[in-house]
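hey
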């Protein structure tokens, strides 16, 4: 059975990691340059984006929890997360390079965060409660 508290915690962990990863001290400036994103001063737009990002993370954590709920060990759960990453995220996000003309560097930057996020969510979901 899926533990919905763990799903919420995993989603929050993912959002926090995203704030760090895409923050100005890590890869934020590079991401803005590669994605051709201008710094927005609209706080309301940022709040909406953050809320939608949290909802996105909740959905990902919930689906991941469904896949790993009956795994026997963390290695099996990790394999499932990595297969989801390679099979769905890496391949789907390649579309921004192939069809939207974005750079491979941006693709690598984004899928780097995705694998970190999935591994972190897997750890939370598997070991919850500690």
């Amino acid at each position: 059975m899926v533990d919905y508290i763990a799903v919420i915690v995993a989603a929050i962990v993912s959002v926090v990691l995203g704030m760090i990863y895409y923050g100005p001290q890590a890869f934020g400036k590079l991401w803005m340059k590669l994605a051709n994103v201008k710094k927005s001063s609209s706080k309301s737009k940022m709040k909406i984006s953050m809320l939608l990002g949290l909802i996105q993370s909740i959905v990902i954590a919930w689906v991941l929890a469904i896949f790993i709920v009956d795994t026997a060990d963390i290695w099996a759960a990790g394999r499932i997360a990595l297969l989801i990453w390679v099979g769905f995220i890496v391949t789907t996000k390649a579309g921004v390079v192939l069809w939207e003309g974005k750079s491979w560097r941006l693709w690598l930057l984004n899928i780097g965060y995705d694998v970190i996020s999935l591994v972190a969510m897997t750890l939370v979901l598997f070991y919850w409660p500690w």
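The helical segments are 4-21, 28-35, 43-68, 74-93, 95-98, 104-127. The mean pLDDT is 95.
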